[in-house]
């Protein structure tokens, strides 16, 4: 359980997120993910990184239980900084990052996907930011890289989700495949990248980031400032607890 990495002979490094059951990532996990992605990019053998996940969905965002049971703002600040580190690591990785998304991709998951280079998704994948319902802000920066401006605003204000097919229509998801084909599809496109000259690909990654019109690091940290400001009011604490209580009630009914 946690963040793991594996190497293949053709220069592909696979990094897996594994926090059962829904991949709600704790503070430490975000920092470990950042270290894994950064380390993979610096590995001279690496030509491309595949970011994938186990369990029921790609990522449910931050671990709200950890934040709720931690006194003061220590866990909140840790989650803010950890997410910023992980998202930045994906964006700044010295080689392209292919992300394979299944099930739900929420909150911090959108941050990872929005900063990646190539997105492959299963046909059951959905994407969304429930932040407003949790009394928080953040990752609109990254959602704006996946959908047009007005759709981003609608999704952000309403906390609704969109399907992988919708993102494929807008061009941000490269391919939508059946769930059982997801890993193979991600490895296939990663293999195409890995067969290119590694020096050229590394230069291409740096060049593309250099012409990016959106300053993702700065804009995301700007958003996070409002999250912390809202937490000073106490409103998000009640919103998070209501969500956790609702989940607990649903699980009890399902049992």
UniProtKB/TrEMBL annotation:
It comes from the Bacteria. Pfam families: ECH_1 (PF00378). SUPFAM superfamilies: ClpP/crotonase. GO terms for molecular function: delta(3,5)-delta(2,4)-dienoyl-CoA isomerase activity. Belongs to the enoyl-CoA hydratase/isomerase family. NCBIfam families: PRK07938.1. This is Enoyl-CoA hydratase. It comes from Lentzea xinjiangensis.
């Amino acid at each position: 359980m946690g963040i793991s990495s594996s190497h293949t002979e053709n220069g592909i490094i696979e990094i897996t997120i594994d926090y059962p059951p829904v991949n709600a990532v704790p503070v430490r996990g975000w920092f470990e993910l950042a270290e894994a992605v950064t380390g993979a990019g610096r590995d001279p053998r690496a030509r491309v990184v595949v970011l994938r996940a186990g369990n029921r969905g790609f990522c449910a965002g931050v671990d709200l239980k950890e934040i709720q049971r931690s006194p003061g703002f220590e866990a909140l600040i840790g989650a803010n900084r950890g997410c910023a580190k992980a998202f930045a690591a994906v964006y700044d990785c010295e080689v392209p990052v292919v992300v394979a998304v299944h099930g739900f991709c929420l909150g911090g998951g959108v941050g990872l996907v929005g900063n990646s280079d190539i997105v492959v998704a299963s046909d059951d994948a959905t994407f969304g930011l429930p932040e407003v319902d949790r009394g928080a802000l953040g990752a609109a920066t990254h959602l704006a890289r996946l959908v047009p401006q007005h759709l981003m605003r609608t999704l952000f204000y309403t906390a609704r989700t969109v399907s992988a097919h919708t993102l494929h229509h807008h061009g941000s998801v490269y391919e939508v495949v059946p769930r059982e084909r997801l890993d193979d599809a991600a490895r296939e496109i990663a293999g195409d990248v890995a067969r290119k000259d590694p020096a050229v690909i590394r230069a291409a990654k740096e060049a593309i980031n250099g012409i990016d019109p959106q300053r993702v690091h700065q804009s995301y940290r700007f958003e996070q400032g409002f999250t912390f400001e809202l937490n000073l009011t106490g409103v998000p604490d009640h919103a998070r607890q209501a969500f956790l209580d609702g989940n607990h009630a649903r699980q009890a009914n399902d049992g």
